[in-house]
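Supplementary notes for students who missed Thursday's class. We covered one full example, reproduced here. Read the sequence, then the structure, then the short commentary at the end.
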Amino acid sequence: MAQREQANVPLLLTIGIISGLLIIVLGIGLEAWYLREVQREVAEKWDNVPVQPLTDKRAAQWKNITTYRWVDEKKTKAAIPVSEAMKLLVEQHQGKGGSAKID
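Structure (token representation):
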């Protein structure tokens, strides 16, 4: 007659408990990793969003200092780019025989 082997209940119970704990730890770790990635993604999106009113104001200021335009409606005063104004000012001071020092 064949002998029947008994299941090692304590070993099976130990393996089951350890496997269950590992699955719980793995789930907690994956959830923490996911939440960290979400937080990083949100922070990256918020950091790269330009503040629209400031961006518009800066673009308007840049346009004002880099283009030729009329200052008044009667077209009696004109504005020139700052770089051109600096060149004219240097030429004007050098033409007078003085140094290019500007007060």
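Commentary. The beta strands are 69-70, 78-79. The chain has two domains: 8-49, 52-95. If anything here is unclear, bring it to office hours.
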